[in-house]
Amino acid sequence: MASRPAVHLRELSDCPIIQLGKGSSIHQSLAHKAAAAALGHFLEVDHLATVTGLVVAGLGITLVPAMTLFHFQHPELIIIPLSPKSQVKRALYLIRREEKSLSSAALAFYEVLLQQRKQLD
Predict the structure, then answer these.
(1) pLDDT, tens digit, 9 for 90 and up, residues 98-114
(2) 70-80: b or e for each residue (b if 16 or more CB lie within 10 Å)?
(3) How many whole angstroms separate alpha carbon 63 and alpha carbon 78?
(4) Contacts of 36 (CB under 8 A, 6+ apart)
(5) Which residues does 40 contact at the CB level (< 8 Å), separation at least 6?
(6) What are the boundaries of each domain within the chain?
(7) DSSP letter at 102?
(8) What top-level class would CATH report for the domain 9-86?
(9) DSSP bridge pairs for 18
(10) In whole angstroms, what is the distance from residue 41 CA to residue 18 CA?
(11) By the 8 A CB rule, do 61 and 12 touch?
């Protein structure tokens, strides 16, 4: 598996999984996926540093959002993306104050997001 460019979620069914707690976004993203129901759950923890340590110790694998990958930069670990066919997605929301105007940079970012939201769905 380590040499592959990507893996499908269902291929991980025999692997012990170290995952973040029920309140985490990745746990919630996987909760409704049929392939995720077949995943073996080994250990549930609350902190990414704990997940990293347990994976480095060889106790299992983990599934985490891309934005957290910097926690897993370790010479003994490899990072393999899930196949796009796994269709694990997270809902993102843009939240702003209604009565407060945005800075010019924030407004430009806001407008770009609104223009590209169909591509992001």
Answers:
(1) 888 889 999 898 888 88
(2) eebeeeeeeee
(3) 12
(4) 9, 30, 88
(5) 13, 14, 15, 16, 17
(6) 9-86
(7) P
(8) alpha beta
(9) 43
(10) 7
(11) yes
2-40 confidence digits (pLDDT tens): 788 898 888 888 889 898 888 777 777 777 666 666 677
CA distances from 105 to 101, 102, 108, 109, 110 (A): 11, 8, 5, 6, 9
CA 93 to chain centre: 16
Instruction: Please state, as a whole number, how many other Cβ atoms lie within 10 Å of the Cβ of residue 109.
Output: 13
Question: What is this structure's pTM?
Answer: 0.69
Half-sphere exposure of 118 (CA within 13 A, CB side): 1
The amino acid occupying position 68 is T
Residue tagged 């129901």 (tokens):
37
* Spatial distance between the Cα atoms of 58 and 29, rounded to a whole number of angstroms: 25
CA distance 26 to 33: 11
Q: How many CA atoms lie within 13 A of 74 on its CB side?
A: 14
Other Cβ atoms within 10 Å of 34 Cβ, number:
8
